[in-house]
Design a protein that fits this description.
With 322 residues, the chain is mostly helical. It has 17 helices and no strands.
Length: 322
């Protein structure tokens, strides 16, 4: 037994590094062959994406350098389509309109959903929280086209609800042609869907607030932190990830914004509500200038990609610093 114990207690001789055979990393081809069934299952999805998403995008990028007329000879024009944008007053005005929409969308249109999410979470009863959460997000189930058409009726200068309400209050002097006046048409469209609670920002803010540990709120209550100070100094800093996500989504959605304008104003009056995406559609389908429209789509794609990359890069650096 003593001999056995001594044999067990003796340290094992170290293996020379030269005698250890390094693990051979499997090549990409071998990993591909080992998992070919999984990649084969993804093949139909990749083919559909390539046909319906990637091919149109690459095709549009290619034809942005041509005087493109589908079905006819399309001579190469180089950068002429892009140069024409610099002197296109309608295109520049449409970008000014979309910048105003963007600034409005990331300020007031975020503030009210954030306050609504805060109010929902202040309810002590889980049942009341569920009820109000359901009521506030239920309008998301309605088709946007129906919502826009309803607002078109509200803004109607003759029989619209808004002007009728103003006349009933004795404020008929304030009645306007809300979508026909170039000075207020853009701002009238900004108010579509007020108070903007039934929206993606409300859902994201609510989910972010629910993920904050309750111990933080308890500590803040012990220190006597009020409701407003808690929102500013606790909730907002802890929701920075949600704000960054919403910023990327806002960049993409506002760059592509065209549906409400197409339904209610068609970019008018006097291009006061024109957006780049709507101008691209009109240029292609109504003016027949497909090459110029492809150049506009390329510019919109580059702007969206650049801003999204910047936001995600900043987020990655902040995460690495933490």
């Amino acid at each position: 037994m003593e001999t056995l114990y001594r044999a067990v207690e003796q340290p094992r001789p170290e293996t020379s590094p030269s005698l250890v055979r390094p693990r051979r990393r499997r090549s990409f081809l071998s990993r591909l062959l080992a998992s070919w069934k999984l990649y084969l299952a993804l093949l139909p999805t990749l083919l559909i994406l390539g046909l319906l998403s990637y091919y149109p995008a690459i095709n549009g990028l290619y034809h942005s350098f041509f005087l493109w007329q589908p079905g006819y000879d399309s001579p190469f024009t180089g950068l002429e389509n892009f140069k024409a944008m610099l002197s296109d007053s309608v295109f520049l005005q449409s970008f000014g309109n979309i910048v105003q929409f963007f600034l409005f969308g990331i300020t007031l249109a975020w503030l009210l959903p954030l306050l609504a999410a805060e109010l929902v979470l202040t309810l002590s009863s889980k049942r009341w929280q569920f009820l109000f959460r359901t009521l506030l997000i239920l309008p998301l189930a309605f088709p946007l086209v129906v919502v826009y058409e309803l607002w078109g009726f509200i803004y109607d200068p003759q029989v619209g609800l808004l002007n009728s309400f103003l006349h009933a209050l004795g404020l008929g002097a304030l009645a306007q042609n809300w979508l026909g006046n170039p000075s207020i048409a853009l701002y009238s469209l900004m108010l579509l869907g007020i108070p903007w609670i039934a929206s993606t920002p409300f859902l994201i803010f609510l989910a972010g607030l629910q993920s904050i540990p309750k111990e933080i709120y308890d500590a803040a209550a012990i220190d006597g932190v009020g409701w407003l100070r808690r929102i500013i100094f606790i909730d907002v800093p802890l929701l920075l990830g949600q704000f960054r996500l919403l910023l990327v989504l806002a960049i993409i959605s506002f760059i592509q914004l065209a549906v409400p304008m197409a339904l209610l104003t068609n970019g008018g009056p006097a291009y006061a509500t024109m957006t780049p995406a709507l101008y691209m559609i009109n240029t292609a389908f109504f003016d027949g200038n497909w090459g110029y429209a492809a150049a506009i789509s390329t510019v919109l794609f580059v702007i969206t990609l650049a801003f999204s990359f910047i936001v995600l890069r900043v987020q990655r650096r902040q995460a690495a610093a933490v």
